[in-house]
Amino acid sequence: MRLAEFSVKNHQFTIIIFIMVLAIGVNSLLNMPKAEDPTLKATFNNIIVVYPGTSPADMEKLIVDPIEDRLSEVSDIKKIVSTADEGVANVRVEFQHSIDPDEKYNEMVREVNAIKSKLPADIYSIDILRFTPEGVNIIQCALLSETTPYKDLEKEADRLKDDLLKVKSIKTAEIWAFPKQQLRISINLDKMAQSVIRSCSV
User: CA spacing 20 to 30 A to 28: which of 14, 93, 144, 149?
Assistant: First the structure.
């Protein structure tokens, strides 16, 4: 009541205060930092496990579940999203914005190394990737097939990579998580020994 009475009796002073507040608001609006793509401090780590010939159900049971159980002990995790496909499993970990990305990445590496003894011994590869979206957009694509050989999938991945690199706004493209081709030779030692004996006798 006193404030209203004071404002009415001193209307000139009230108008000046109102104009000052309005000027401060306009000045703040004009000078406020703006960005079309504001900086994001969210940190993500991807654990990609390649285990050729394993069904999605077995990938979830043998790979995804043990990794998720181990990572549940890590602090500052915001969300874990996992996918299990034919021969490939992907565990994506999103951390809180306040964490140190380098420290959490090192912790992830330690936890994955600690769990390796509980995973199948014949796993082809385990890769730990990290990314912090700061002014960039990251797109991940997966090529999956239950019957196509890895060699053909690799060719398709190379073709897709070449097509993506033709887009001017794309900086780089990489291919991950496919086994390199190997050539295995089985030797018949008995026949080899016979051949050596024949050569010596001649």
Answer: 14
